[in-house]
Amino acid sequence: MTTLALLLPAVVGCQQIAAVLAVASGGDTVDAEYKLPEGLLAVVVDEPEPLGVTPEAIATFHKTFEETLSANKIKTRIVALAEVQRLQQTETNYEELSIRQLGEKLGAEQVLYVRVKYWALKENPEDVQYAGRWRVGVKIVSTERKSDVRLWPRDGAEDRTIEVKTDPSLDDSLAAPVRVAEQLARKLGKKTAQYFYDHKPLDE
Questions:
Q1: I want to staple 189 with a disulfide (CB 3.0 to 4.6 A). Which of 4, 28, 44, 65 is the partner?
Q2: Does some domain include residue 40?
Q3: Domain count within the chain
Q4: Which CATH number covers residue 176?
Q5: pTM for this structure?
């Protein structure tokens, strides 16, 4: 038997082990779609139609998004949610402001605009079980005073649609709606942040 023949089983075995390790570690890395700068980013959640997103859910989303970026070494600074809320409450023509203008008034260099497209804690209002779903469209806009302020996405899409769900739950407690809303907000915060840093597929 040749030396090559003796080595082949070991090589194949190593390749199989490497393949298993690759799967176990999540496989190839998914690249960030957009690299956030280290400047100030305003996160603005907009609900054009009243769908019932709670202030607590927005706060949890905001916090989770910021914490996820920080945990993954993204140095972008986030405008405090209280500042965004203050602008919403005190700006008389808030609804008429463009996304760029909102960011400018908040002192941000860029804006993560989150447009709520769907929100529900149950698939049907009459359902006994909770099964939450939150769908949004997100994009990054510059606050520079120029004609083209869109930074991301740049592939012709209006935005990136992101949807998260919770598992069906037969929970009739008074705390159930709050719990489901918090789960949705945490999932959305993490999933949104992943567009801005390299990560493993299994992290999604």
A1: 65
A2: yes
A3: 1
A4: 3.40.50.10610
A5: 0.84
Q: What H or E segment, with its residue span, contains residue 189?
A: helix 176-193
- Give the whole-angstrom CA distance, residue 140 versus residue 151: 5
Is residue 171 domain-resident?
yes
**pLDDT tens for the chain, residues 1 to 204:** 544 444 434 444 444 444 444 444 446 899 999 999 999 999 999 999 999 999 999 999 999 999 999 999 999 999 999 999 999 999 999 999 999 999 999 999 999 999 999 999 999 988 989 999 999 999 999 999 999 999 999 999 999 999 999 999 988 888 999 999 999 999 999 999 999 999 988 665
**161: domain range?**
30-195
**Cα(56)–Cα(69) distance, integer angstroms:** 20
Residue 17 lies in a domain: no
Instruction: Give the pair of three-digit tokens for residue 80.
Output: 């405090």
Whole-angstrom distance, CA of residue 86 vs CA of residue 171: 35
